[in-house]
């Protein structure tokens, strides 16, 4: 339905003494790709919060580590939405190195809340419209 890719080099501060990306950074990589996807769709997170009055908090994160990313690698991080959200948005994510080898994969589940009351709300129609347009 929606596919987004973001490429960037591994930065020194993301690695441990062995030159391997620390496991905590993969969650940050996932977030960078999701935020990039939202911006590419025309609905950056800050616009969703200000204009649609929604926040999109993380409900759960799943990450499986396959191959270490290392200093000097160029990573491609993907974010895929495969079905229309209702109350939750499911985003499948991967991290691959410059050789296409899978370093990590997972899924992030997000919810929707009203930014003023913090009450759960269904996926806003404006977001559904954007996803439908991107899928066309």
Care to describe what's here?
The structure is a single chain. The chain is an alpha+beta fold and 136 residues long. The chain has a single domain, classed as Hotdog Thioesterase (Thiol Ester Dehydrase, Chain A, Roll), CATH 3.10.129. Helix content is 25%, strand content 35%. It contains 3 helices and 7 strands, in the order βααββββββα. It has a 5-stranded antiparallel sheet with strand order 1-4-5-6-3. A two-stranded antiparallel sheet has the order 2-7. The chain is elongated and about 45 Å long. It starts with a strand and ends with a helix.
Overview features:
Thiol Ester Dehydrase, Chain A, 5-stranded antiparallel sheet, two-stranded antiparallel sheet, 7 strands, 35% strand
Task: Summarize this structure briefly.
This protein has 136 residues and is an alpha+beta fold. It has one domain (2-135): Thiol Ester Dehydrase, Chain A (Roll), CATH 3.10.129.10.
């Amino acid at each position: 339905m929606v596919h987004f890719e973001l490429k960037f080099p591994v930065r020194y501060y993301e690695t441990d003494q062995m030159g391997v990306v620390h496991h905590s950074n993969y969650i940050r990589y996932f977030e960078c790709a999701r935020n990039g996807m939202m911006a590419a769709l025309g609905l950056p997170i800050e616009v969703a919060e200000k204009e649609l009055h929604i926040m999109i908090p993380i409900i759960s994160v799943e990450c499986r580590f396959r191959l270490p990313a290392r200093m000097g690698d160029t990573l491609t991080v993907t974010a895929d939405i495969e079905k229309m959200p209702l109350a939750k948005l499911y985003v499948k994510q991967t991290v691959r190195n410059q050789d296409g080898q899978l370093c990590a994969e997972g899924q992030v589940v997000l919810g929707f809340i009203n930014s003023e009351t913090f009450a759960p709300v269904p996926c806003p129609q404006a977001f559904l419209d954007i996803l439908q347009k991107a899928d066309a």
